[in-house]
């Protein structure tokens, strides 16, 4: 399995049989309040042949109308059931609404929707494939349900957001530490790091490096991989 950071919360998850894209966002500039720190690793046209898209919620930096128009009509887009209609308005054609703890299969891949808390209806996802379990948190604050996710799945990789500005849109450094404790993954890859506030007084000084420092101070030795746009994590073959 391979996980490539395209940018911000957009990741390409590849197995032997499928390519899955999360929270597609290819906008170059952000908006009047937020600036994009780095361009995406590739244009949306390069990913039009993915096998499925996971949408955690319908905020502008997680959903891309232009990309949806490029997708073949039959490509499934998995999204929160409460806002599946809105995802269709954004251009999604084959939208499948999921509730927390609902599961679907895509070939040999199991896709589990899991709870998440944000300013709008949202879900996270756990992908089970090739003997691995990958948690994509989307946008979420820390909450007790993360203990449930950690108990239900034996997570190999957790893709969790860290907020570096105010108002907080996801977890801060300490909340990310609590999430790591409850989820108990073998590896954490921090995400949602592609934007920052245009106004300095709204920047908090929080950072993935600060999260790692707090993680170690808490006594947790969970490995953390910081990725740049275009960088790929690849699982190692199982011995024997």
UniProtKB/TrEMBL annotation:
Protein name (Swiss-Prot/TrEMBL): MBL fold metallo-hydrolase
Signal peptide positions (record): none
Single annotated GO MF: hydrolase activity
Keyword Transferase (UniProt): no
Keyword set includes Hydrolase: yes
Entry-linked Gene3D superfamilies: Ribonuclease Z/Hydroxyacylglutathione hydrolase-like
UniProtKB keywords: Hydrolase
Metallo-beta-lactamase domain residues: 7-192
Pfam families xrefs: Lactamase_B_2
């Amino acid at each position: 399995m391979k996980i490539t950071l395209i940018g911000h919360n957009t990741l390409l998850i590849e197995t032997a049989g499928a390519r899955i894209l999360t929270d597609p966002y290819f906008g170059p500039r952000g908006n009047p309040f937020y600036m994009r720190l780095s361009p995406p690793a590739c244009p949306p046209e390069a990913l039009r042949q993915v096998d499925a898209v996971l949408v955690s919620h319908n905020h502008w930096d997680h959903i891309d109308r232009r990309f949806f128009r490029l997708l073949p009509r039959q490509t499934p887009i998995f999204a929160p059931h409460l806002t599946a209609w809105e995802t269709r308005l954004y251009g999604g054609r084959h939208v499948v609404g999921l509730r927390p703890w609902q599961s679907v299969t895509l070939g040999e891949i199991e896709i589990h929707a899991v709870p998440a808390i944000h300013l709008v209806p949202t879900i996270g996802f756990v992908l089970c494939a090739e003997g691995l379990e990958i948690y994509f948190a989307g946008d979420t604050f820390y909450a007790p349900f993360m203990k449930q996710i950690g108990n239900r799945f034996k997570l190999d990789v957790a893709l969790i957001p860290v907020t570096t500005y105010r108002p907080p849109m996801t977890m801060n450094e300490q909340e990310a530490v609590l999430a790591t404790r409850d989820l108990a993954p073998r590896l954490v890859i921090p995400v949602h790091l592609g934007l920052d506030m245009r106004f300095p007084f709204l920047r908090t000084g929080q950072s993935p490096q600060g999260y790692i420092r707090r993680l170690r101070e808490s006594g947790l030795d969970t490995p953390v991989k910081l990725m740049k746009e275009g960088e790929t994590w690849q699982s190692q073959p199982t011995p024997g």
